[in-house]
Write a sequence for this structure.
């Protein structure tokens, strides 16, 4: 690894000042499960590494505040797997966090890092899209919020300007979206997904589906017809509505993980599966 | 501008104070600076788990963590399982079931299993599979490892 300085600010303001001082020579470190590999392979050669885990504001990692669930930038996947509020209100997020890497990875990898790295295959992006998550972004000018749908741009790209950092992801708790997460992998166990998919339904009959790993970013699509969310509607009635939701999928033709035809064929299968679980879950909350 | 870091942390119950290169991983420092070579270096990308140690009660890949991040932490390595040279129940179970073949992956498997048993003293076979999924074994003694963890769990619990 190339030499760098390791700095551990204790406030968000200090971290922002360091970012401003060092510009693109600085790199933020949260869990490090991606960054340390990039450093070792010299894909990135920052002069300064700024560790966010000493920041007081980012602890405790998960809390309820003003009708929202606040997930700090220091929250790791294992925290999400075990949190009782996440399990009850946002089970699809717990499901997605639980399949990231191995236990060792989930003990270090953060949710915010997973999103900020902009991987099209990130497991946690689809549930965050379905639940309507917002990124809380800090800069020397103050704080702004951005929906995750506007934040995620493409492979490795997110809407984060120079000098900005994400301090939290917030989920609204004033509406109930019953959702489920599912994915397609080559094998059971540690693997990147060939499809990531989350489906959520609410009492008004709206269905939200988000899917990733089949294009440059995960997409969110919404069905307002009520057909998908209707437990009484037939499979035949739902099939064309569901199929239309996957029009944005552009699976890679050269990926070693799965061929494009296979991924395209599996999208509605996974979609129907997650939809059924979501409807079941909505029934239980009613 | 300095790229060294003053590190103070506890390893296997003993306080360690040393100046390290900020770019060194926890794995580098354990093996090269402290000389605890029980923790193995293998893939160095977080896939094989040979480098697994326990930091503040949680199993981690020490190849994916800067040593500086362990400042102030409590680290347990495989050497810490048998401080007096007497194998603990888990190690003995790995020997008894024949899980340890070439042995290279065993420190990682032991630390993954230890972290599981600390949190879940009576794990189900599924929980054991999940806990060990991040430690690969080229000799593929997976069934024996699982048996060993089950046996050790019973002993601890009884
Ligand atoms: S050496 Fe760390 S996971 Fe393989
Ligand atoms: S015993 Fe040889 S790699 Fe596991």
């Amino acid at each position: 690894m190339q030499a760098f300085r390791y700095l551990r600010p204790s406030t968000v303001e200090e971290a922002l000042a360091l970012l401003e001082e060092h510009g693109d020579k600085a790199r933020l470190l949260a869990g490090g499960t991606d960054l340390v590999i990039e450093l070792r392979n010299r894909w990135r050669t920052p002069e300064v590494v700024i560790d966010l885990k000493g920041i007081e504001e980012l602890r405790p990692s998960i809390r309820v505040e003003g009708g929202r669930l606040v997930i700090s930038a220091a929250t790791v996947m294992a925290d999400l797997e075990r949190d009782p509020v996440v399990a009850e209100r946002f089970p699809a997020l717990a499901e997605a966090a639980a399949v990231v890497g191995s236990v060792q990875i989930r003990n270090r990898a953060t949710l915010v890092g997973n999103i900020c790295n902009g991987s099209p295959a990130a497991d946690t992006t689809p549930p965050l899209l379905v639940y309507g998550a917002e990124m809380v972004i800090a800069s020397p000018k103050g704080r702004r919020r951005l929906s995750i749908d506007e934040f995620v741009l493409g492979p490795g790209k997110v809407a984060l300007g120079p000098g900005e950092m994400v301090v939290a992801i917030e989920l609204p708790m004033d509406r109930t979206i019953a959702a489920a997460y599912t994915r397609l992998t080559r094998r059971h166990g540690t693997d990147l997904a060939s499809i990531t998919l989350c489906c959520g339904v609410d009492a008004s009959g709206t269905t939200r589906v988000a899917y990733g790993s089949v294009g440059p970013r995960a997409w969110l699509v919404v069905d307002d017809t009520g057909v998908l969310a209707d437990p009484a509607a037939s499979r035949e009635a739902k099939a064309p509505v569901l199929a239309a939701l996957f029009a944005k999928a552009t699976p890679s033709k050269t990926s070693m993980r799965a061929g494009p035809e296979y991924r395209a064929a599996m999208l509605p299968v996974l979609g129907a599966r997650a939809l059924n679980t979501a409807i079941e879950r909505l029934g239980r909350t009613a | 501008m300095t790229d060294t870091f003053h590190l103070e942390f506890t390893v296997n119950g003993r306080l360690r104070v040393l100046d390290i290169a900020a770019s060194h991983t926890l794995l580098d420092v354990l093996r090269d600076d402290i000389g605890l070579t029980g923790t193995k270096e293998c893939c160095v990308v977080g896939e094989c788990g040979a480098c697994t140690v326990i930091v503040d009660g949680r199993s981690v890949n020490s190849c994916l963590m800067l040593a500086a991040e362990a400042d102030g932490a409590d680290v347990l390595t495989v050497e810490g399982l048998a401080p007096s040279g007497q194998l603990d129940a888990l190690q003995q179970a790995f020997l008894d079931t024949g899980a340890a073949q070439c042995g290279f992956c065993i420190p990682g498997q032991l630390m993954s299993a230890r972290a599981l048993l600390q949190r879940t003293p009576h794990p189900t076979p599924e929980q054991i599979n999940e806990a060990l999924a991040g430690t690969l074994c080229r000799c593929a003694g997976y069934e024996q490892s699982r048996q060993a963890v089950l046996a050790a769990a019973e002993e601890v619990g009884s």
Notes: Residues B 41-44, 46-51, 61, 63 surround FE2/S2 (inorganic) cluster (ligand 1) (CB under 6 Å). The longest strand of chain A covers residues 165-172. The mean pLDDT of chain A is 93. The two ends of chain A are 55 Å apart (CA to CA).
